[in-house]
């Protein structure tokens, strides 16, 4: 599992990130009902490390397959606990992970590995590993 966290547990993009994340990769341990992501931070990457042409060549590197209690425990350090708690009482945009993205071929990419899209959509409904997911919002 990849992580975009810094040593203090905060993500560079977490502070001030306004991008909404919709994700259909329900096998992920961070996935929450309503196609939302309960991770505190996600890390979007290029699968091949070369030029990105299509959305399918990107991945959510934070994806982790939900495989019982042990996977949930190992993912616990990257959970938006505050957002989860508020979400239980008031459904809305509380679950909004910080995003770091190294796909600099994307038109929404900005210096500092930031994503300037208003919203992104992560694909990978039947994903079992990171490369099965992708940022469907990628655009050259
Ligand atoms: S695949 Fe990525 S965006 Fe989707 S729930 Fe998992 S960590 Fe969040
Ligand atoms: S929209 Fe582009 S910059 Fe934003 S996360 Fe997806 S690939 Fe990265």
Secondary-structure blueprint of this entry?
Elements: E1 20-23, E2 31-32, E3 36-37, E4 41-46, E5 58-60, H1 69-74, H2 81-89, E6 98-101, E7 109-110, E8 114-115, E9 119-123, E10 134-135
Parallel strand pairs: 1-9, 4-6
Antiparallel strand pairs: 2-3, 4-5, 7-8, 9-10
The structure holds iron/sulfur cluster (SF4) (2 copies).
Residues 21, 23, 25, 28, 30-31, 37, 39, 42, 60, 62-63, 122, 133 line the site of one iron/sulfur cluster.
Write a structural description.
- The chain is an alpha/beta fold.
- It has one domain (20-135).
- The protein has two helices and ten strands; from the N terminus they run βββββααβββββ.
- β2 (31-32) and β3 (36-37) form a beta hairpin.
- The longest helix has 9 residues, at 81-89.
- One iron/sulfur cluster (SF4) binds at residues 21, 23, 25, 28, 30-31, 37, 39, 42, 60, 62-63, 122, 133.
Supply the key terms.
11% helix; 23% strand; alpha/beta; disordered N terminus; 140 residues; three-stranded mixed beta sheet; 10 strands; binds iron/sulfur cluster
Regions with little confidence, pLDDT below 50 for 5+ residues: 1-16
The spatial strand order of the largest sheet comes to 1-9-10
Question: Structural class, from secondary structure content?
Answer: alpha/beta
Q: Kindly, what is the distance between the CA atoms of the first and last residues, rounded to a whole number of angstroms?
A: 26 Å
Number of domains: 1
Question: What is the overall pLDDT average?
Answer: 84
In short, what is this structure?
With 140 residues, the protein is of the alpha/beta class. It has helices at 69-74, 81-89; strands at 20-23, 31-32, 36-37, 41-46, 58-60, 98-101, 109-110, 114-115, 119-123, 134-135.
């Amino acid at each position: 599992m990849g992580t975009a966290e810094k040593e203090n547990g905060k993500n560079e993009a977490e502070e001030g990130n306004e991008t909404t994340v919709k994700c259909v990769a329900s096998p992920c341990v961070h996935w929450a009902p309503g196609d939302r992501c309960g991770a505190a931070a996600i890390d979007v990457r290029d699968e091949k490390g070369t030029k990105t042409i299509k959305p399918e060549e990107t991945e959510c590197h934070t994806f982790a397959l939900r495989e019982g209690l042990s996977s949930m425990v190992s993912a616990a350090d990257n959970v938006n606990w505050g957002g989860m708690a508020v979400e239980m009482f008031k459904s809305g945009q509380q679950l909004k992970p910080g995003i770091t993205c190294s796909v600099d071929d994307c038109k929404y990419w900005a210096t500092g590995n930031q994503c300037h899209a208003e919203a992104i959509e992560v694909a990978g409904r039947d994903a079992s590993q990171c490369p099965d997911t992708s940022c469907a919002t990628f655009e050259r």
